[in-house]
């Protein structure tokens, strides 16, 4: 590589220093087209999934749960159907400190509520925005304890889906 230095004294006493580097004249490579990950569509029903499946539907006026209220610890699928006209999400939470679903009902008050989940609960990473008419599938491991699920319409509020006991 060839480098040259140019110094020039300006009338006001300023000095300009320029370093000019010679570059190879090779043709630049064309960047590769980025490969975007493909998104696998969520299953339409629990029949398409193996193992324990929790099925929750939000219709804009309530949260409808279909599935067992008691399951064995271990792997589980949560299938959320947003049948409303707005963005919505599902949230599966573990109750802490010996709290029960009755405590959640008392804390939440009348539905729909605008309250955030109780401080004595732990989010499990299921809360994801889901467009109207779309499904969301979450897979995870549940340890023994008490859980609850809610549907949250982004402009309409939060509804309780169900309580869940994991043995």
Descriptive report:
There is one protein chain. This protein is mainly beta and 167 residues long. It has one domain: Cupredoxins -  blue copper proteins (Immunoglobulin-like, Sandwich), CATH 2.60.40.420. Helix content is 5%, strand content 44%. The chain contains 1 helix and 11 strands; from the N terminus they run E-E-E-E-E-E-E-H-E-E-E-E. It has one helix at residues 101-108, and strands at 3-9, 15-21, 53-58, 63-66, 70-71, 74-82, 88-95, 121-123, 135-142, 145-153, 157-166. The strands form 3 sheets. Strands 5-11-10-7-8 form a 5-stranded mixed beta sheet, covered by helices on one side. Strand 1 and strand 2 (15-21) form a beta hairpin. The longest helix has 8 residues, at 101-108. The protein is globular and about 60 Å long.
């Amino acid at each position: 590589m060839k480098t040259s230095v140019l110094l020039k004294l300006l009338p006001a006493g300023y000095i300009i220093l320029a370093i000019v580097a010679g570059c190879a004249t090779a043709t630049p490579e064309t960047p590769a087209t980025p490969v975007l990950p493909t998104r696998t569509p969520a299953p339409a029903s629990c029949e398409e999934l193996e193992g324990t499946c929790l099925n929750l539907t939000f219709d804009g006026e309530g949260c409808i749960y279909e599935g067992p209220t008691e399951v064995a610890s271990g792997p589980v699928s949560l299938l959320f159907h947003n049948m409303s006209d707005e963005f919505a999400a599902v949230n599966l939470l573990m109750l802490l400190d010996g709290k029960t679903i009755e405590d959640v009902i008392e804390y939440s008050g009348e539905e729909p509520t605008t309250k955030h989940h109780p401080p004595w609960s732990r989010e499990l990473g299921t809360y994801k925005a889901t467009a109207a008419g779309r499904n969301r599938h979450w897979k995870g491991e549940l340890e023994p304890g008490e859980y609850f699920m809610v549907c949250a319409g982004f402009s309409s509020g939060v509804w309780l889906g169900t309580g869940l006991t994991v043995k």
